[in-house]
């Protein structure tokens, strides 16, 4: 059949199904079109009816809101309150005013302003207003605000009442300065007459936004009565009139001010103003705003004709006729279901006609697209189609086996599993069931059984050597392996022996071991040999990397006799806590999971987290007292005290020889001896640095250090080159020369020079994001500088050296050519001194920028440091002491709360303690104490 004729053919199954489907699509489209047209007509009619009803409802609602206050105001303008000139007279009307306040939820205050400046107001105290008057007495229901002018001065008074109008507090307010005559509500009512409705404004006392109804007294010119109505109350009333959730409803005056709205103040009222602009049209307005269609209507409200108010309504078109759309949707769904049923029926009929040929064509097509895992065989009554499917199915299985071998060779990670996969696929290709792979040991010069599949064979073969050729090796193997195996020698790229593959040939026609089969297995085994060599190299390199890491960690621990084991214990504790985090399904750890690469990356980072300590001087890490450098310099100072002690003896002997009073000289010598003993004991005590040094102690150290002793020997002899450079440029004094007992000499300080680390944020060489401030000098070994350390034993320079180890850790690890799956090792290893509040080092990272493994590393490092018993400057804490300190660190934003609580809740701290702490450190812990904020 030629190509042009073939391309003109149409599938029978497609023709049947397409005919039925096309008919249903046309019928459904006609029906839906008619329904849509009817719905559009109904939408306009419904919108017009709805907006007229809303306007009537708004008028009724405004009347219901304003009439009660207006009625109450009409009654009050005729009452005695308008003529009352004194506060007692006005207080007699409190019950009437209280009844007015209680008669309506929207009335917040009733008041009167007089032409002499007096003011009398009674206000309800509700939940919202009590927050604006936070110091109201308990049980207050009403607040009376009174202002009376006496002798030209305003006298302010606030009085608080309960529900029964019992006086709770009488509070004079000398600074209450409020003139009602200056307020718009007073001026409008007094000037114009008649009841006045103000525009929205902010009430003087409460800060609320609302409206005021005001009316001049009937027979008392200059007296104006007022009632406040809050906008929030009007908004709540209008919100009840919303026809749909998305409707906009507002009352707007002639100036365009929104007096009340059914929405929050910050909501978008643009659609309402656009409707108001077209109010003269007198019809329903159709608008589009923000991608939505709207129906709008505006009409004047006759509830307050003198205010020229308008009710403006906007309703989303899709909400207005939501029920109609719902009916149309159901109709569409029914029509769709009918079409779907007929479509399925059409496809069923067509598939029954052309199913066998279509299946075969599709599956063969998948073979052309390299889908060899597809089952080709089909059940067909056509003999040729059935036989063709069987042949193609066998071919697909063979090709799939080759693919599986390639996948196993290229993707195998574990050597043992790689060997097992290779053996299984090769056995399957040749149609057998049993086989084995031996690996050659260069050190032991023997073949060792690596994997076997249902084959009983020797575990080792010792009668082989690396120099044997393939034929000799196979002959030797046949002496040890029974049956009919086919052997393939595995050699690497250098043709060195790495192993042997054997397959037991016991099924079908292959027991004859044809040359074609042997060649085939040998070629496949060659690829397997390369993959095995590659995997062995990777595993050996990984083992080498692990060895180097352990070497570095052990070297750091061995460098100091006091921190031995830290680099080993922290990774173990961190891994224990990481395992618990992966098990947890709560809070921060709900979705926390680590891949194998991430887990190995974290493992390396944990072991290398302190590798920078290799650059930190040992005497700084181990500094136990303040004067310690390479040795404890308190011994030098003690020697100077010995000199002063002998000077006292010399002065005594000199006085005796000079004929002075021997008893007085002896007393002076004893006094001086006692003074020197006490001074040295004082210095030695503060050299320990075990407690905080107060200011007076530091001052006394300086006073003791100011004493002088006489030096007779040159301090320029026997110096190192570093010491000579430190005193270069200093003139040597003539001997003998007095020297202070304690001093901070220039040679005690070492400058940074070109060795200053790039840790400042604005340093161009700082590409790691460090944010630290180095001290002015690299070292300062001044005696006063060290002895007056306020906390601990480290100077700022030495503390920076300690902190710099993390900088060196990041720089050292960043310089390594790490593979892609280990690129986070420098960051993971270098963030365990960061804090959740962003005050850690070296980058000042806040907690939200730290990953869960980084937070875990910080907790593990802190707990190990607190409980370690090998530190010279502290004892190892008990469990309860360590957890208590860490709980305090959580409150101060030092470590993460979620990780700490997981650490306690999971019992990880106790399992670690049982392995690494002394029995006396493992005390009883009340875990509930550490689960509280």
TrEMBL record:
Assigned keywords, A-Z: Membrane, Transmembrane, Transmembrane helix
SMART domains registered for this protein in UniProt: HDc
Transmembrane segments: 12-33
InterPro entries: GAF-like_dom_sf, HAMP_dom, HD/PDEase_dom, HD_GYP_dom, Sensor-like_sf
Pfam families: HD_5 (PF13487)
UniProt GO MF annotations: phosphoric diester hydrolase activity
Superkingdom classification of source: Bacteria
Gene Ontology terms: biological process: signal transduction
Signal sequence region: none
CDD domains the record matches: HDc, PDC1_HK_sensor, PDC2_HK_sensor
SUPFAM superfamilies named among the record's database cross-references: GAF domain-like, HD-domain/PDEase-like, Sensory domain-like
Keyword Phosphoprotein carried by entry: no
KW tRNA-binding (keyword) present: no
Domain HD-GYP: start-end pairs: 706-919
Region (Disordered) location: 749-768
GO cellular component: membrane
Residue intervals of the HAMP domain: 351-404
Protein known as: HD-GYP domain-containing protein (C-di-GMP phosphodiesterase class II)/HAMP domain-containing protein
């Amino acid at each position: 059949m030629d190509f042009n004729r073939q391309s003109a053919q149409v599938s029978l199954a497609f023709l049947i199904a397409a005919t039925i489907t096309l008919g249903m699509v046309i019928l459904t489209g006609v029906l839906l079109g008619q329904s849509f047209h009817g719905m559009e007509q109904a939408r306009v009619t419904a919108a017009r009816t709805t907006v007229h009803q809303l306007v009537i409802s708004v008028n009724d609602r405004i009347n219901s809101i304003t009439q009660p206050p207006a009625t109450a105001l009409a009654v009050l303008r005729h009452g005695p309150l308008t003529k009352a000139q004194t506060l007692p007279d006005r207080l007699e009307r409190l019950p009437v005013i209280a009844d007015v306040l209680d008669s309506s939820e929207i009335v917040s205050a009733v008041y009167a302003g007089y032409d002499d400046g007096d003011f009398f107001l009674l206000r309800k105290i509700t939940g919202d207003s009590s927050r604006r008057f936070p110091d109201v007495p308990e049980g207050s229901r009403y607040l009376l605000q009174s202002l009376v002018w006496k002798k030209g001065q305003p006298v302010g008074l606030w009085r608080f009442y309960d529900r029964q109008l019992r006086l709770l507090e009488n509070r004079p307010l000398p600074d209450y300065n409020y003139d009602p005559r200056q307020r718009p509500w007073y001026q409008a009512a007094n000037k114009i007459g008649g009841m006045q409705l103000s525009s929205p404004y902010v009430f003087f006392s409460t800060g609320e936004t609302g409206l005021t109804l005001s009316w001049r007294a009937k027979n008392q010119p200059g007296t104006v009565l007022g009632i406040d109505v809050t906008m929030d109350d009007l908004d709540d009333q209008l919100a009840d009139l919303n026809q749909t959730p998305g409707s906009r409803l507002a009352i707007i005056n002639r100036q365009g001010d929104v007096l009340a709205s059914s929405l929050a103040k910050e909501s978008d009222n643009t659609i309402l103003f656009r409707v108001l602009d077209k109010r003269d049209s007198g019809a329903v307005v159709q608008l589009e705003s923000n991608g939505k269609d709207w129906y709008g209507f505006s009409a004047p409200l006759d509830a307050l004709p003198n205010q020229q108010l308008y009710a403006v309504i906007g309703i989303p078109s899709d909400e207005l006729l939501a029920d109609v759309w719902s009916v149309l949707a159901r109709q569409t769904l029914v029509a769709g279901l009918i079409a779907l049923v007929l479509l399925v029926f059409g496809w069923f009929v067509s598939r029954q006609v052309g199913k066998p040929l279509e299946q075969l064509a599709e599956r063969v097509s998948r073979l052309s697209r390299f889908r060899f895992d597809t089952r080709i065989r089909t059940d067909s009554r056509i003999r040729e189609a059935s036989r063709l499917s069987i042949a193609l199915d066998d071919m697909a299985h063979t090709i799939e086996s080759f693919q599986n071998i390639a996948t196993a060779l290229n993707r195998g990670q574990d050597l043992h599993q790689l060997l097992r996969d290779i053996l299984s696929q090769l056995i399957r290709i040749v149609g057998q069931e049993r086989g084995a792979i031996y690996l050659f040991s260069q050190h032991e010069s023997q073949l060792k059984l690596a994997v076997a599949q249902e084959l009983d064979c020797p575990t080792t073969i010792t009668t082989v050597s690396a120099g044997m050729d393939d034929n000799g090796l196979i002959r030797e193997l046949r002496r040890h392996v029974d049956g009919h195996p086919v052997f393939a020698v595995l050699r690497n790229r250098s043709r060195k022996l790495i192993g042997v593959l054997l397959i037991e040939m016991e099924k079908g026609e292959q027991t004859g071991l044809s040359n074609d089969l042997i060649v085939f297995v040998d070629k496949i085994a060659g690829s397997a040999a390369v993959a095995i060599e590659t995997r062995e190299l990777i595993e050996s390199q990984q083992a080498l990397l692990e060895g180097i890491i352990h070497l570095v960690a052990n070297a750091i621990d061995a460098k100091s006799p006091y921190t031995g084991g830290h680099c080993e214990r922290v990774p173990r504790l961190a891994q224990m806590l990481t395992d618990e985090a992966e098990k947890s399904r709560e809070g921060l750890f709900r979705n926390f999971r680590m891949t194998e690469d991430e887990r190995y990356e974290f493992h390396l980072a944990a072991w290398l987290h302190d590798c920078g300590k290799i650059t930190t001087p040992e005497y700084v890490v181990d500094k136990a007292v303040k004067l310690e450098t390479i040795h404890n310099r308190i011994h030098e100072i003690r020697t100077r005290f010995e000199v002063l002690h002998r000077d006292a003896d010399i002065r005594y002997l000199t006085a005796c020889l000079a004929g002075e009073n021997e008893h007085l000289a002896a007393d002076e010598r004893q006094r001086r001896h006692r003074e020197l003993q006490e001074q040295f004991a004082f210095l030695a005590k503060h050299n320990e640095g075990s407690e905080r040094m107060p200011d007076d102690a530091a001052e006394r150290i300086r006073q003791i250090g100011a004493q002088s002793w006489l030096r007779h020997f040159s301090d320029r002899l026997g110096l190192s080159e570093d010491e000579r450079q430190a005193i270069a440029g200093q003139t040597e004094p003539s001997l003998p020369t007095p020297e202070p007992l304690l001093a901070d000499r220039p040679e005690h300080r070492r400058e940074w020079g070109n060795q200053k680390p790039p840790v400042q944020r604005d340093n161009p060489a700082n590409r790691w994001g460090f944010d630290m401030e180095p001290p002015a000098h690299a070292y300062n070994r001044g005696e006063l500088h060290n002895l007056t350390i306020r906390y601990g034993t480290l100077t700022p320079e030495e503390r920076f050296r300690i902190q710099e180890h993390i900088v060196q850790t990041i720089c050292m690890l960043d310089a390594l050519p790490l593979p892609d799956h280990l690129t986070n090792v420098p960051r993971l290893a270098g963030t365990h001194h960061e804090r959740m509040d962003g005050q850690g080092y070296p980058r000042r990272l806040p907690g939200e920028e730290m990953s869960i493994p980084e937070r875990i590393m910080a907790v593990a490092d802190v707990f190990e440091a607190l409980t370690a018993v090998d530190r010279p400057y502290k004892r190892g804490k008990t469990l309860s002491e360590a957890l208590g300190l860490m709980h305090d660190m959580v409150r101060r934003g030092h470590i993460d709360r979620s990780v700490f609580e997981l650490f306690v809740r999971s019992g990880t701290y106790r399992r670690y303690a049982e392995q690494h702490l002394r029995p006396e450190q493992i005390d009883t812990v009340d875990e509930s104490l550490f689960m509280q904020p």
